[in-house]
Amino acid sequence: MANAFFDPGDQRAAKVRDLFSRIAPRYDLINDLQSFGLHRYWKRRVIQLACPHPGQRALDLCCGTGDLALGLVQHGAQVAGLDFSERMLAMARRRKSGSRSREPEQTQHASLGPRFVCGDAQRIPFSDNSFDIVTVGYGLRNLASWETGLREMQRVAKPGGRLVVLDFGKPDNAIWRGLYFGYLKLFVPCLGRIFCGNAGAYAYILESLKHYPAQQGVGAKMRELGLANVRVISLLGGVMSINYGEKRSKAGMG
Ligand SMILES: C[S@@+](CC[C@H](N)C(=O)[O-])C[C@H]1O[C@@H](n2cnc3c(N)ncnc32)[C@H](O)[C@@H]1O
Fold this sequence. Notes:
The protein is an alpha/beta fold. The protein is built from nine helices and seven strands. The chain has helices at residues 11-23, 27-34, 38-50, 67-73, 86-102, 146-156, 174-196, 199-210, 214-224; strands spanning 57-61, 78-83, 115-118, 131-137, 157-168, 228-235, 240-246. Strands 3-2-1-4-5-7-6 form a seven-stranded mixed beta sheet, with helices on both faces. Strand 1 (57-61), helix 4 and strand 2 form a beta-alpha-beta unit. The mean pLDDT is 90. It binds S-adenosylmethionine. S-adenosylmethionine binds next to helix 1 and helix 4.
């Protein structure tokens, strides 16, 4: 199983898409179990940082079953969720119709969206300077090139637009990092085996993390791309991370 998803070549994206399509029905349940429900809190932090206002346009990349997209819509933003797995999108659309039927008619921000779109985060099917907010939760790490994903986020953001990235991090403290990698190596694949019949899909988290520079690398790349107000927020001692940056307006470019 080692490096199964990181063999070079074109099949990489196909393997990742196939993996998420297989685990889609149990994805939300395992997310809750493996994070002890904390991912909900971290996603609320992302939405807080994205600071959505009614009428603003937001894009959530690698939207999966739609947590962030549905959260952004609650603040009145016009939201598009993009993912390349139709099965993950089907779960998101089902949740969207569920949340709409539970809302009183006058508060149905959801009537503005989210619109769930099938597409590749490395070639975002939207024009330059389209969105006030671009978020990605646990997505950048999965791309064949996370740098391309980040550049695409910057391209589709409007000048002044806010980019927010949530993902697994890498703690600085060696002992804490060892414990956390052990947890990802042993406990998380067990959950995958029990609830999805697939340990390999969840061993993939640690595998992908080894190929991802996490919070410090993403922060450095944001600065290199010329984003403004770059912030690196480490959560739970660096186990999780949020990267934040703003696209400079032309006048502010140095
Ligand atoms: C770990 S899930 C994250 C889902 C959701 N954002 C969340 O926070 O729960 C990663 C998602 O990224 C999607 N994905 C991976 N590579 C992609 C790509 N190149 N383009 C679009 N979606 C991609 C997968 O299909 C999957 O739904």
